[in-house]
Specification:
globular; binds adenosine-5'-triphosphate; 5-stranded antiparallel sheet
């Protein structure tokens, strides 16, 4: 089922949490809302679910499959929720936690006991926790608890799944496994899902589409490839992976590292893997620098340089390339940008 958000604005007092936001999520997509803390991600998710009101402005609407749901209560919207802190019932077993949403049904919607059992066991198998249905939440690992929270959300057969930082409380390894697992699960059940994250790697790896938010606005809405390789503006470029910011010194041929994050100086950006390190400066396009740190653990070599103004320049290269260069800490080198990205002007300094 598709979701459409039209012209949504939300104020908390005088503070604008969402500023005329519109977006469309097609049926079956897994979409990430990505942005820094306070950018409005959770507010948008809560408004979609019906947990939060939005400003009553002409043209503002939330539609599920083309039909406005403004008048519908939360329960009528049939949305499955998973939050960062898996709010499982501590005194209930895994089975009862998952069955909860089905047992509270009344009237014609009430299911026979056998049917509830069948559905719960099916979900337990889906989250790969067979044999653990009689455990209590504190007898499970963090990742297992989060999978139970997901099964509980799925039990009511929601029209969508909304996940707010679902892996936020977990350690890096568990997080990564659960991410892949959720992607596979999504491919299997194809439930339209929106998840909030401030982790760009998580968004790029997991989502079909990434919506980048900042200050209550959508900066870009695109595939992971588009937002990473074709960022629309300086904010998206900076937020999706590390970048080096430079500007060309006016009237002087050489490139200098941006001394003060100058606003409106027609800056350009270079990703760390698009900078070469050379011993000399043949085309006068390099930045004079010194090797400060070399990190060789991991799939790529990471090198930190420092320029004459004590600004750090981050460079990444393959181990093969590093072996050819063979520079060491303290060497005087030149950082030569291979591919630069320009934006008209920065509207604000990038921290
Ligand atoms: P995070 O990643 O930190 O969770 P977020 O992008 O999800 O951030 P929101 O929770 O949507 O951000 O909050 C957006 C802004 O609105 C924040 O500045 C927050 O302080 C403010 N805000 C959220 N809820 C309320 C509220 N009930 N009353 C006042 N301000 C609020």
């Amino acid at each position: 089922m598709s979701i459409e958000v039209k012209n949504i604005t939300k104020h908390f007092g005088t503070f604008t949490a969402l500023n005329n936001v519109s977006l469309r999520i097609p049926d079956g997509e897994l979409v990430a809302l990505l942005g820094p803390s306070g950018s409005g991600k959770t507010t948008l998710l809560r408004i979609i679910a019906g947990l939060e009101e939005f400003d009553p402005i002409d043209g503002a609407d939330i539609l599920f499959k083309g039909v406005s749901v403004i008048g519908n209560r939360v329960a009528e919207r049939r949305v499955g929720f998973v939050f960062q802190h898996y709010a499982l019932f501590r005194h209930q077993r895994v089975f009862d936690n998952i069955a909860f949403g089905l047992r509270v049904r009344r009237g014609a919607n009430r299911l026979p006991k056998d049917e509830i059992k069948r559905r719960v066991m099916e979900l337990i198998s889906l989250i790969q926790l067979e044999g653990m249905e009689n455990r209590y939440p504190d007898q499970l690992s963090g990742g297992q608890r989060q999978r139970v929270a997901l099964a509980r959300a799925l039990a009511i057969e929601p029209k969508f799944l909304l996940l707010d930082e679902p892996f936020g409380a977990l350690d890096a390894r568990v997080r990564q496994n659960l991410r892949r697992w959720l992607r596979r699960l999504h491919d299997e059940i194809k439930l339209t899902s929106v998840f909030v994250t401030h982790d760009q790697e998580e968004a790029l790896e997991l989502a079909d589409r990434v919506i980048v938010m900042n200050h209550g606005l959508i900066e870009q809405d695109g595939t992971p490839f588009e937002v990473f390789h074709q960022p629309k503006n300086a904010f998206v470029m900076d937020f999706l992976g590390s970048v080096n910011l430079f500007h060309k010194r006016l009237g002087v041929g050489g490139i200098v590292f941006d001394p003060q994050h100058m606003v409106g100086q027609n800056p350009f950006f270079v990703r760390p893997h698009e900078i070469d390190i050379l011993p000399d400066n043949p085309d006068n396009e390099g930045i004079s620098a010194t090797v400060q740190r070399i990190q060789l653990a991991g799939a790529i070599a990471k090198i930190e340089l420092v320029d004459v103004n004590e600004r750090e320049i981050f460079v990444e290269m393959s181990h093969e390339k590093y072996q050819q260069h063979r520079f060491t800490i303290g060497d005087a080198v030149f950082a030569v940008p291979q591919k630069t990205v320009h934006f008209d002007a920065l509207t604000e300094p990038i921290a």
